[in-house]
Predict the structure.
Amino acid sequence: MKKIALAAVAVLGLGLAACQDNAPDNNISTENTIETEAAADTNSALNAADNLGAAADNALDAAGNAVSNGANAVSATANDVANGQDNVAGQ
């Protein structure tokens, strides 16, 4: 009977030792999670800003190309008019 009692006490002792307070570890884990999520949010915001900058740059390039194309069209039309006048004058 003593052996059973000693075994029971040993098992209970191990069980109590396993039930230690993990609050500090849990707090550190929570803090690490918050920091990781904050870093991910910051990176996401920076990427979004970079993407907006690239989109604005592309829009400005497109606008510049449209203006350049319009100027080229005006120049081509002026050349066509001048060539037409030369052709009429030559007849």
The CA atoms of residues 24 and 30 lie 10 Å apart. Residues 23-90 form the longest helix (68 residues). DSSP finds two helices and no strands in the chain. The mean pLDDT is 82.
